[in-house]
Request: fold
Amino acid sequence: MEERYKKIDDISKKLIKEAGLQQPSTDFLTNVMSVVAQKAAKKIYKPLISKMAWVFIGLVVLLVSSVLFIVPLSHVSFFGIFDAIEKVSIHNPFSEVKVSKITIYGLGFLGLFLVQIPFLKRHLNRT
Reply:
């Protein structure tokens, strides 16, 4: 068994000596760096969420928070339909399952990560 591996080792050493080491040209590094610099210069930074979208998100958050501050929910009957839902008795099969907070956080972050994948893939395919 050792004899077989020794033959393979000897053959490998012989082939490596015959092939020798290849040396790159003297200006190899400068050529590579110039190509990298050209490709980097063509890349234009484009944010994933535009400024207009951030303004819209900010306005929506400001509007919702100001409405909630001005109109307290205890006096408004927007949520009257939820009373009818509470009266319907549907047994929840997962009501007895106990899950730790760390597991919930982990599943939440995993869900957020999986939601981001299609958006990032589409963004990278466009650039």
The longest helix spans residues 101-126. The mean pLDDT is 81.
